[in-house]
Every structure is written in structure tokens, then in C-alpha cells.
Model the fold of this input.
Amino acid sequence: MARVHRRGRGSVRTADHLRLSLLRARQEVDRVRPAHPPGTKRARCSASRDAPRRVITVTDGPARDRDPNRTDPRARIGRILLRGCAQRTASGGESVRALVTDQDGPRLVGDYAQPEIGPADALVRIEHAGLSPLEMAAVSGRIDHSGVIGHELVGVVEKLGERAAKSPLLGKRVVASPDVACGTCDLCKKGLSVHCRNRRVIGLRQHDGTLADYIALPVRNLTEVGSKIDPEQAVFAHAVADALHVAHLAPVEKQTYVTVLGDGAQAILAAQVLAKRNASVRLVGAREERFGLCERWQIRHRHISEPGLRADQDVVVVCLEPESGPNLAGADAVRTALGMLRPRGSLVLQGPPVHVDGLDLSLSDHLERVIRDEMRILGARSGRIGEGLVAIRSGLVDLLPLITRRANLNDGVGMLRVAGEPDQIRMVVDVAA
Done:
């Protein structure tokens, strides 16, 4: 029996997604079952809609005739767990540890089904994972996600699907891009897979996350870390890539005044990257205790109450993060940024890969000035994780001061309580411990 987990109120499963899920389940049955003698009925898939959790059952004839103890080859299927369009099965009864969240809240599960890999997937044994404010938002319900949480990992590839068997990543330490694309939509075919119409996000939307012993991911999402990068620092590869992406979208080398608005980990990383390209970059935040990091890296900084809205900044980068300080989240941050920006200046809005309640933006009150002053507004979300690894290996960014706590997976819900404390920036979880 396979269960399709509800995604929470407000989440919509399209008919196309459900039909694709049913088709994949039916194909898996056809692959492993014996040939049917003439005159026998083929297996059929039926959907049960009345159960509290939607259930897809694979039956051979009426359900009452089904013997739960029989051991024909179809028993190898086990439960077919469908997360969005993703299909995975219990692996020979093997189970793993996983930190999950759902309508009952977060908890550490010791008997979570080990994921099965698809033909183009890899099974990754997770060594380290990141615990960030995005995970805290998923646990608190600000992000609509049910299942294993966590979107950052460093792990070792232990198994490859048959179509990925020639990949050189087997046995290698890897990181993973969190966006899982379908590979078949029009945007994927145009090379815009990061904007896939059916995009799932590891640990944040319709895909199990990294705070577990194992994860199954498409091989195309994986990048080798190499032996010269500390695994704990490699956890930040995607965050560093996002900061570099901002620099690519809005070059600051020839600008006079550049402001990064925010004081979360992503804002601090963006300020580090941009300050290497322009010494005039400043960080404006609300939590003075984090300005010590700016002083360590010789980055200019100001409290948000100090700088005036003089409309003189060439570039303003707004880092929208779930844990942003006062006046640095959502519409308040945009209002402040537009007050700083000069005519024909560039506003870069960097945000998380999924919707987070409380980070809603409203530009309607400011569009008149945007038009009048011919401002340029750019969205920034996801960079190339390989570029992040290169930056870490070269020493472009200093990451160790951002790790304010270390934990291991057995700490379970306790580490969530610690990660939610105001003085925490980022936590690295030793999953292998």
C-alpha cells in the first residue's frame, strides 16, 4: 500500500500530477510481477479518497480476495510512497532515522522507510546537513511542507540507478542543488530547469529532505565536493552560490554606493562576496551583535535606524530571510530599500526557494516611484552550486564564524529548540554520528 501525504491546507495537487503518480505506480507493478496466465485479471490501481491520508492501493482482483501473507514477486514492491510526483519504496524492510514534520509537529523517527532510487537517481548516505531558518519555518508551518526537513547536505553516493550507472560519482562525496526539476516541461527543455514548472525543493516542497540517514536524488542534482574542502563548510555551497548569483545579476565593481539590507546568514554572505568586489559595500541590519562579523571582515555596517533615506544608493540588495530582524522582512524591507535607492538604481530582491508566510511583498504603494525614477528591480533565488564550491575552495568566503552550533541527528527535536534561539546563525548537523 502506498500513501500520498497531504501537503497541508492550501496545497493543490493537479490532476496531471496524480495521473502521473498512478502511471508510475502501475509501471512499477508491471516491472516486477510475473506474467499473467490467460484468463486472469490484470492488476489494477484504485484510489481511496475517504481515508484521512490519501491512499493508492495496488490489488489483484477484489480486495477481499487478497492474501496479505503471500510472498509472490510483487511483495518486493512494498509500499509505494508518492511525494508529489516522486516515487519511492520501502527498501527490503530497511529503515533509517529521519527528522520529519507534519500536522502533528516535528519528531525524530527511527523507522522511516529507506528511499528507493529511480533509474536516473543516486542513493546518498548523508554525512552533514544544515539546519537553517528555512527548516524552522517548515516546522512552524510558515512553509507548507510535510515529510523530512532539511535542504542542505554533504554525503557519499552509495548506489546508482541503472540509467546513471556510468556516473563517476559512485563513492564520491557530493553536495546537492535543492531544486528538483521534472526535466520534461517547456522550461526544462529550454535550459531553465531551475524554474521548472513542476519544481520540487528538497526538504521544503514535495520532496523529503536531508535530515535523515539517506536521500534519493537525481544524479544531475549532485556535484562532487573534492578532498580539499572541509565537509562542514561544503554544507554552505548552495548559500554561497546564491550570494554569487546576486553579484552576477547586479555587478557592483563600478558603483559608488552599495547596501545589503538584512542581518541573516544569507545577507552576511552576500555582504562578504560583494565587499570583495567593492570596498564601499555596507551591511544595514537590526541586530548589533552580528556586526562583529562585519568588523572581522572589515565590512562597513550600520544599524537600520541610522542611515537616512536619501535616495543615493546605486545598488540595494534586500535579503528576505525568515529570521530577518525588525523592519527587514517583507514589504517593510522593500519600502526601506526604495527610500535608499537613487533614480535608475538597481534593487535586488533575494529570497528563499519557496513561499514563506510573513515574507509577503507589496509593491503597489511604490510602483509609481519605481516608474518615475526608472528603477530596475531584479529577483534572485538560486545560483550554481559548483560556483559555490569553487568560492569555498579558494577562500573567497569565511564560513566557520557562521556556524554557531553543532549537533547530531539523535538530538532530534532538541536541536530545533536550540536553532530557534536568537543568537543562532546556522547549525551544522553531523548525521553520521
